[in-house]
Fold:
Amino acid sequence: MLYCQILIGILSNLTNKRILLAVTGSIAAYKSADLTRRLREAGAEVRVVMTQGGTEFITPMTLQAVSGHPVYTTLMDVEAEAGMGHIELARWADLLLIAPASADSLARMVQGRGDDLLGAICLACEAPIAVAPAMNQAMWADAATQANIATLQQRDVHLFGPAEGEQACGEVGSGRMLEPLELVTACSGLFATGSLAGKKVLITAGPTREALDPMRFISNRSSGRMGYAMAAACVEAGAEVVLISGPVCLSAPERVTRVDVESAAEMLVATESQLNGCDIFIATAAVADYRPIEVAEQKLKKQASTLTLSLEPTTDILATIAEQAPATFMVGFAAETENIAHYARGKLEKKSLDMIAANQIGREQDGSPIGFESEQNALNVYWQGGEKALPVMPKSRLARELVELIAARINTKI
Structure:
């Protein structure tokens, strides 16, 4: 019963989170299989990296079975590194959790060693890093280990444990790795920032559809992933979230009130109906700029070699809401193919926004898609007197970074 209650409390924070679990050379590695299972039960996706020492205590096959993914063990894996595997793993993670973290692995992190897979990932990882130490009590108490821990904490590495108790060597003291459920709870806590506690956030997401006839419509390539990631990140930050969603193939994040709409007109009506008490409005939706002047009551038949459509502008939802609710912190999104800064700053001024997040539609230099129809994105964020570039990363992590920027700026709203 206690386990179920704890799991319910942490489920929302870890749902769809990407946790890269690193297993190093400690007898506590036997707990890693259970830890992987508990993380997955809490909704996280888990991939596992093992040091050579870690494979001496538990087999990669075991962790592959419980994680559902191949286990990574070597830096010079020709197949993996052809795609810069350690960089991709570092990018993929929302959290790098090293559990168990041996005394040697902690020392190597302090030294910045990059001659094995875990070391290279640590150097390349921009996501939070947490360590769960596991070692003999005398090794934990040694001045060198304590100095290494102090250095890592100064570098914003999170420390989970260790616990006190009887150890595998028969001694008693500090140095035991925390139990799997304790580590799951600790991981969950990293995603609950409280930076938007007490705020009501209204978010629009996905595309709109503008009907041509009963079966055809004009739309765009928006998947809604960025808006849904923003909703999840705002919930993690403690906000009450209402999500106005166009047609997407996504499930609403936990603790989010979702309102489904189809057209730009419906999205505007739904947004206005939820505006009361709104502290922050985040417009990630890719709203149609135009709609057909006339909608055919019956299916349009193919009768000629060309078809001319007459279109009229839709109402600009963001500009309308910004005018109706001047006290609300307004965040716009701009997807551009060129001159990002010029167009984004123009929208910031023209629509009286507090912040705008702009991204370029297309692909990275390596050919990977970003923006629409992708799980990754990069943003250039602008506000009056400032800007910040957020590099390519999973949209879930990008959303959390943008939420923290919003939280830092919201108090500047006059």
In short: The first strand starts at residue 18 and ends at 23. The chain is about 35% helix and 25% strand. Residues 91 and 393 are 6 Å apart (CA to CA).
